[in-house]
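Work Package 3 (structural annotation) set out to generate three-dimensional models for the target panel prioritized at the project kickoff. During this period the team completed the workflow that converts sequence records into C-alpha cells, so that structures can be stored uniformly alongside our sequence database. As a representative example, we reproduce one entry of 312 residues exactly as it appears in the project archive.
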Amino acid sequence: MAISRKTVRVLAYGAIYVFWGGSFLAIRDMVAVTPPFFSAAIRFFFAGVALYCFSRWRGSAPVSRRAFVHSLLLGLLLFACSYGCLFWAETRIASGTAAVIAAMIPIWILLGEVLVFRTQRLGISVAGATLLGIVGVCMVTRSIGLEHSMVSGVLVELAGSVVFSFATLWSRSLTLPEDQAMRAGLQMALGSVGLIVISAVAGELPRIPAAFAAWHWHTVVSFIYLVTCASILAFTSYTWLIHHEPATRVASYAYVNPLIALIVGVALGGEHVSALQAAGAAMIILGVVATMLSKSKAPIAKPPAADSVAAR
C-alpha cells in the first residue's frame, strides 16, 4: 500500500525534529568515553561514505575537480571546524545547553546576510532577533555557573556556530554537486579526514583502543543513531522537505530542536534545567522565530541556493 504524501510529510518533519534534537545527547554519550574529534570523525566518515555511495548508485554524475575542491573546503569548515567545536564543547557542557547555543545559527546567518552579503535589510526585527539571542546566550552561560571549563565549552561552541553560519552563506557562491545526497556525503567524508588530522594533532589517537574498550551498549546505540538517524535519515528527510515545503516552515527545526534536546536530556540523560537556563532558551528560541519571520517578509536581492548541510 502506497504511503500518502501527508504521511510522508509528517514522518519527514518528525525525523528532522526528533532525530536532530536527540543527536545532542547521543553526542554527549559518545564523547563521555571517546575523544571528541575522533568521535566526530567516525560519525561523518561512515555517514558521508554511505550517502556518497547511495548517490552514485542512484546514477549521479561524477564530481568535477572544481566541485571536489569546493566540497573539501566547505567540509573542513562545516565538519572539521564547526562540528569539531560542538563535539569538544559537549565534553564540558550538557547536551541541552549545547542545543540551545546551536540554535543561534539562524541568527548569525541573518546577520551575515545583512552585514556582509547585503541580501537582507537591517530593521527592527533583525536587531530585535539578535538582541534576544545574545541575551539568551548570556542567561544560559550564567545559569551553568562561571566554572572555566563550562564557559570555555560555551565559547568554543559559539565560535563553531559562527563558522557554520559563515560556511553556509559562503556555500551559495561555490560550485557544488547538484545531487543533495552527494553534496552532503562528500562534505561529510572530506570533513572527517580533517577531523582525523585534528584528532592526531590533539593527541587523541593513542587513547582510541582504550576508548573502544570502554564502550557500553548505549555508546554503540548512540553511534549508530548518529550515523543513521541523525545524519542519513534526517538529512534525506530535510532534502525531501526542502523540495516540497516552504523553506520558512522547514526551518522551524531551528527552534524545535532545542526543545527536543532539552526534553531528551532531562528524560534520558539525567540533566537538570534551571529556571534561568529555561528563560535563556526561551529568549534564543524567540530570537530564532523572529529571524525566520523577518527572512520570510524581507525582500531578497538574489535567490540563494540551497544551503550545503542543514543542521546537527
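The chain is about 75% helix and 0% strand.
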